[in-house]
Amino acid sequence: MAHTEPPDTGGDPASAATIDFFETASAVFSAGSVGDTLAEVVSLAVATIEGCDFAGIFVVEDGAVVTPVHTHPDVVDLDSLQQVSGEGPCLDALAQGVTVYADDLSIDARWPAFGPSATARGIRSLLALPLLANRPPGESLGALNLYGRYPQAFGVIDRARGLLLGALAALALSIARTHEDDERQVANLHAALATREVIGQAQGILMERERISADSAFDILRRASQHLNVKLRQVAQDLVDTGERPETGERSDASDDRP
After folding, report:
1. Which of 171, 212, 227, 255 has its CA 20 to 30 A from that of 147?
2. Position 146 in a domain
3. Strand pairing category for 54-61 and 125-131
């Protein structure tokens, strides 16, 4: 693919920032899958933010915090340290939905357990940015975490670029979660329709065989479900598959609801 030079901004910082945003967004969203997109975000963080040596993303999955993408194995170790100690900038950003910056972990009193442990592993600065796209205030999908070996590693421009990357990562995650929710709703609808169909078939068998009403046939299935302690759909499926009348636990099983 031919490289296209960015247009001349004439030194206008606002125009340069706009171009930078679209170039970054294009790089992020051309990555492919959500996993690839998040991996592109952390790679861009290391490549474009001068003070960032490592980067990773926290996300919440089934109530647990995991690190699906990172640029270095130490990120997983540092994230685990925060989870084990129950403290750290990344956890605070995730819980409070605010950007948290530690410019020198060796002297920061906010995290007395995590700070010294991170320092011992050669990390002095940490910038944690919550992923907030389409989320209520204070509720985040996760956090983009940038690690620096030196104190005061992230200046104002670095933090602004981090916010941009965090916003793009949040948008990618939000779109993915919405798509997953839509797929789940469609699957639930299909399952509901299939359940109605098999129950209707079972009712029809009982109605024809025992010459009873639809309500009476459904009542037999309901009572059998309670007696056998299995779902109504399974009772109906067993009847359709085997042709055997389900047991309701009553002495009159053989003649239930016949006129």
Report:
1. 171
2. yes
3. unpaired
Q: Look at the chain and report how many structural domains it folds into.
A: 2
Give kind and range of the element (H or E) at residue 76: helix 73-85
Cα 42 to chain center, whole Å? Answer: 17
Let me know whether 162 and 112 are in one domain: yes
Q: Which of 145, 178, 19 is nearest to 78 (CA)?
A: 145
* Contact between residue 58 and residue 37 where contact means Cβ atoms under 8 Å apart: no
**To which residue do tokens 């060796």 refer?**
106
Question: What SS3 class is residue 92?
Answer: helix
Q: Are 145 and 90 a contacting pair, CB within 8 Å?
A: yes
pLDDT means per 10 residues, the chain with 259 residues, are 42 42 52 71 88 89 80 92 91 90 95 94 94 60 91 90 82 64 59 77 86 87 86 86 83 48
Judge whether 130 and 166 are in contact, CB under 8 Å.
yes
Phi then psi dihedrals of residue 68, to 5 deg: -75, -25
